[in-house]
Amino acid sequence: MSLVTGDALSLLLFRLHSGRLLGINLLKVNEIIPCPALTKLPNRHPNVRGIATLRGAAMTVIDLARAIGERGAADEDDGCLIVTELSRSRQGLHVKSVERIVQCSTRDVRPPPAGAGNRAFITGVTQIDGAIVQVLDIEKVLHDIAPALEEAPVGQLLDGQDARLLQGRRVLLVDDSQVALQQTLNVLRQLGLDCTAVRSAQAALQQLHEYHQAGMPFELLVSDIEMPELDGYSLVQEIRRSPDIADTYVLLHTSLDSTMNTEKARSVGANAVLTKFSSVDLSQALLDAFRQMSGQH
């Protein structure tokens, strides 16, 4: 019987008005539509073109070129919208044109060049038919335009017994998006957890082995699913195949909402799956995990 792997990655390729070729994970795309008439809002963010109405619901339209530091389109009727829905919000990305959908392996997606810096807005780079394709970090684009609403500090939601249960427990966090990583790290630290954060699955494997050998094993791993080189599904499989770290509790999470994600994550050996990130849901999932490890129900 062959193992279920998360190796396959579908990318929607599109171009900005500069001609730059980018890709976005197809799982993060709802639909592609011609750019509709937009309602302009006073005092709107400079990278927001306006508001569109799609099937009766308002949707923010982002000038993607401007959002990542390029010249935006002069003509609003020129181009199309890539509609995405992440973590309970829907938005349209205004781009020059959509080209095609391609299949590749997550192992062929390399991390961004070291000198790319925080303004790169990409999570990885790959080659498709000899052309360089940069994979868009959509979470970073959205965060720069509308930072996540400040929720009540999750640490205040814990009673004394729960706070003691979590205090100082060692957790490893992995996410290829710096923005998503920081958001999750903030939540975990508010809960009193002892956190280490890395940007790739390979780095996570290395940390799990090294900390175990040092006699300070991580009790729990919180991992994104959609990552280049080695995704969350494949990471779980590698962990379960390694005797020294095979018992690590793994919580996979994704900004997408899909039954498929949950079923696939369970099939490769994840202990729990969280879709559509929120700090409250993450806190509850962590509490459930440590209660389970401590024999509480």
Automatic annotation (TrEMBL):
The modification 4-aspartylphosphate is found at residue 224. This is Chemotaxis protein. It comes from Ectopseudomonas toyotomiensis. InterPro entries: Chemotax_regulator_CheV (IPR024181), CheW-like_dom_sf (IPR036061), CheW-lke_dom (IPR002545), CheY-like_superfamily (IPR011006), Sig_transdc_resp-reg_receiver (IPR001789). It comes from the Bacteria. Keywords: Phosphoprotein. Gene3D superfamilies: 3.40.50.2300, CheA-289, Domain 4 (2.40.50.180), SH3 Domains (2.30.30.40). The keyword Secreted does not apply. Residues 170-291 form the Response regulatory domain.
